[in-house]
Design a protein that fits this description.
The protein is an alpha+beta fold and 146 residues long. The protein has 2 domains: 49 residues, no CATH class; 65 residues. It contains 2 helices and 6 strands. The strands form 2 sheets. The protein has a 4-stranded antiparallel beta sheet with strand order 4-5-1-6. The radius of gyration is 44 Å and the shape is rod-shaped.
């Protein structure tokens, strides 16, 4: 909706929305467009009026509200935001899983290193045993019975 500023005014803020002169007429009055739901609030301020005849070269009015479209946009926006949160959560889970995998790989590598060292030690002991002279064979004395 097009509104006209009172004489001397060139901007206004309503609910953190800022509006400024978009076009001026030959008398110096400024005109601006606002969404329909802001119009009653602004028109309640003395000096602001609904524009009946716009100056030449004024752009088209803002599109009218379309509840079906607006609800669909709101719903899709909520869905996108929920998916962004889910993606962040999944990314955090993935990072945690990757860190756990790295820790497990490190532990596996450490165990493999210890296994190799143990196998080398066993092989060394077996080699030492095979090279050592055999102790003399002795026969056990039979036990005396009482």
């Amino acid at each position: 909706m097009w509104l006209r500023f009172p004489e001397g005014a060139e901007r206004i803020s309503v609910e953190l929305q800022h509006f400024e002169v978009e076009v001026k007429d030959s008398e110096g009055f400024g005109y601006f467009r606002v969404p329909d739901h802001f119009a009653p609030r602004i028109l309640a301020i003395p000096g602001f009026i609904k524009a009946e005849n716009l100056p030449e070269g004024a752009p088209e009015d803002l599109p009218k509200a379309d509840p079906l479209r607006d609800n669909a946009i709101a719903s899709l926006t909520a869905t996108v935001e929920a998916q962004k949160i889910e993606i962040r959560s999944l990314s955090e889970d993935l990072s945690a899983a990757q860190a756990e995998i790295k820790a497990l790989i490190h532990a596996r590598n450490e165990l493999e290193r210890k296994l190799e060292a143990s196998e080398a030690k066993v092989a060394e002991l077996q080699e030492d045993e095979s090279e050592a002279p055999s102790p003399p064979l002795t026969f056990a004395q039979p036990l005396k019975r009482r």
